[in-house]
Known about the structure:
By secondary structure, this protein is α+β, with helices and mostly antiparallel strands. It has a single domain (about 10-80), classed as Glutaredoxin (3-Layer(aba) Sandwich). It contains three helices and four strands; from the N terminus they run βαβαββα. The chain has a four-stranded mixed β-sheet, with helices on both faces. A hairpin with a 2-residue loop joins strand 3 and strand 4. The longest helix has 12 residues, at about 20-30.
Amino acid sequence: MEETKQKKVVLFVSPSCKWCxxxxxxxxxxxxxxxxxxxxxxxxxxxxxxxxxxxxxPALLIGSRWICGFxxxxxxxxxxxxx
Length: 83
């Protein structure tokens, strides 16, 4: 079986966000590599999220697709995670 290259995943979070923790745990459980950016420490990242319609965190950038909030169904579909 040929291994497919995983899409680049960036997870935008804030320290007090429980859904951010849920998103991290979900990605980790499925062995998805991801980069975490704390929007409270990175104003440009916060503006990027807002510019793409995400009013809060978590926000995920998977490849070129933005997913606002912990929308597990969309995340799994985008990353080809079987239910």
